[in-house]
Amino acid sequence: MKRLSYLFVTVFLFCLTWVSNAQQKTIIIDAGHGGKDSGQVAESLNEKDITLQVAKVFQQIAEEKGYKVVLLRNDDKFISLDERTEKINEIKPYLVISLHANATTNTNKSGIELYFSKNEKLKEQNSNFISKMSQSLTTQTKYKDVKVRNANFKILSESDYPAILIELGFMTNASDLDYIRSEKGQGEIVNALIASL
After folding, report:
1. Each residue of 39-73: pLDDT tens digit?
2. What is the C-alpha separation between 143 and 189, in angstroms, rounded?
3. What are all long-range contacts of 121-129, with beta carbons under 8 Å and residues at least 24 apart?
4. Which domain holds residue 83?
5. What is the DSSP string of 130-189?
6. Nearest-angstrom CA–CA distance, 4 and 23
7. Which of 68, 1, 79, 6 has the alpha carbon at shortest distance from 37?
8. Distances (CA, A) of 86 to 150, 156, 181
9. How much is the pTM?
10. Which of 123, 137, 165, 180 minimizes the number of CB atoms within 10 Å of its CB?
11. Residue 1 forms part of a structural domain
12. Hey, how many other C-beta atoms are within 10 angstroms of the C-beta on 52?
């Protein structure tokens, strides 16, 4: 009986600590594009709508796990890059995840891509998040290969906090498009990202 009580208390404290740690972490989700900026378009579907859908799924699941999630946009409105980076640095998040979807003339091209800046101050933190995300995405989603690249996108280079830009898949690839607009695909990607936090 004592052993069972001890086990219960241990599990309870572990869960309490995990939730407590999560609550200390504010994640900013930047749903790319919005308003007059539709982003890529495929089969009458706008990139701005896919990124917002995924952002809301992330918020719902992450908040259930105890994280604080801030969406830079929660509806179809245009927000400039200057406004986005200003808000990021004002909030001082644990991590910024910027959501986008790819497109190309080669309809066979498929896959997910992760981008981070060459900011030396954040190099170690960004690399750590990239490594965890890559592993998680390849084991928990349909993507078995994750491309990782450096880029000086404004949302990355002007953030004073760790920031990763994610191309969720290619809208010009039928399989990718079906996946990233589906409830299953969005859920798998989001859960993989949360698991890497």
Report:
1. 999 999 999 999 999 999 999 999 999 999 999 99
2. 9
3. 122/159, 122/161, 122/162, 122/163, 125/162, 126/162, 126/163, 126/164, 129/95, 129/162, 129/164, 129/196
4. 25-195
5. HHHHHHHHHHHSS-S-EEEEE---HHHHT-SS-EEEEEEEETTSHHHHHHHHSHHHHHHH
6. 29
7. 79
8. 22, 12, 30
9. 0.88
10. 123
11. no
12. 23
Q: How far apart are CA 33 and CA 78, in angstroms?
A: 7
Distance separating alpha carbons of residues 186 and 132, to the nearest angstrom: 18
Could you tell me if residue 113 is inside a domain? yes
- In contact, 26 and 70? CB cutoff 8 Å: yes
- The verdict on residue 179 lying in a domain is yes
Residue 70: which of 29, 123, 100, 31 has the closest Cα? 29
- The CATH number covering residue 165 comes to 3.40.630.40
Please report whether residue 20 resides in a domain: no
